[in-house]
Design goal:
The complex is a heterodimer of chains A (140) and B (129).
Chain A: H1 2-16, E1 25-36, E2 44-50, E3 55-69, E4 72-82, E5 91-101, E6 104-117, E7 123-138
Antiparallel strand pairs in A: 2-3, 3-4, 4-5, 5-6, 6-7
Chain B: H1 2-25, E1 42-52, E2 57-74, E3 77-86, E4 93-101, E5 104-111
The chains are: A mainly beta (140), B alpha+beta (129).
């Protein structure tokens, strides 16, 4: 019986894999609500709930900011992503902000501080900053 | 007299409460009701990834290109494909399949990206075409 379930799982995985990438295609069912309309300051929503891995992804529009890139002004709403029950317990601080304009994603910053233990058993922290910022845009 | 004083206090309290509520609910003025979904649209980004720990510090600079490609169908739903590539790491590739409605923009599937619902995100460059 276990063997049959295993084969079924493998088959469904292959069925979802299209294109031969290492990870293949991952289906979101139900679909994830990436942005909720109308998007404005103060709006909060649940983007995703994963009962298998017991986590929820919440989003909230926390502010508004005008960004100037190459002389162009982009009026942005700042969307914060929150994962309140994150399974990764070594995370000290973590936040993710996206600057969304009518023209699309203008900027995104992910910041986190995590704790680790080295081979000698000493604890140390690591800081990661991942920033994406628009340099050019061509909307059809 | 006491009754009048109590009523006055109650009115003042209600007035203050409603004022506070109005302040917190005041929208900033900007309302976004749609996201670009036209095929052929393109965004270019500069990505800077910095890692600092007790013994290793490094920064990765990278250029990302996001293009909306032809329509795809996921589970019978028509979606648009947001394809992300990296100029410095041409083997890197991710895609996000989305559909827009009046309620928002939904991610129906992704390839080579995080489970995260962000519009364009790849956590790694280890994904090949």
């Amino acid at each position: 019986m276990k063997k049959i379930i295993f084969i079924l799982l493998i088959s469904s995985n292959i069925a979802y894999s299209q294109g031969g990438g290492i990870m293949g295609l991952v289906i979101e069912d139900p679909a994830v609500l990436s942005l909720k309309f109308p998007l404005q300051v103060g709006v909060k929503w649940t983007a995703k709930t994963d009962s298998n891995f017991n986590f929820t992804v919440l989003k909230e529009v926390i502010g508004r900011e005008t960004l100037i890139i190459n002389g162009n002004e982009y009026d942005c709403l700042i969307v914060e992503r929150i994962i309140p029950n994150h399974a990764n317990t070594n995370v000290v601080t973590s936040w993710n902000h996206s600057w969304i304009a009518k023209e699309g994603l203008i900027k995104r910053v992910h910041f986190s501080i995590t704790t680790h233990t080295d081979v000698n058993g000493s604890e140390y922290t690591a800081t990661y900053t991942d920033e994406l910022i628009l340099t050019d845009i061509d909307l059809k | 007299m006491k009754k009048i004083t109590l009523i006055l206090f109650a009115l003042i309290f209600i007035s203050i409460s409603s004022c506070k509520k109005d302040e917190t609910n005041t929208p900033s003025g900007l309302i976004i009701n749609s996201y670009p979904t036209t095929i052929g649209s393109e965004w270019k980004y500069k990505r800077t990834y910095t890692s600092v720990s007790n013994d290793t510090n490094f920064t990765i600079n990278e250029s990302r290109v996001v293009t909306i490609e032809k329509d795809s169908t996921i589970n019978g739903i028509d979606v648009v494909k947001y394809r992300t590539t990296s100029i410095e790491y041409p083997e890197a590739y991710s895609a996000s399949f989305k559909k827009q409605s009046w309620q928002g923009i939904y991610t129906h599937a992704y390839r080579g990206a995080s489970w995260d619902a962000s519009i364009f995100i790849t956590d790694s460059n280890n994904f090949t075409k």
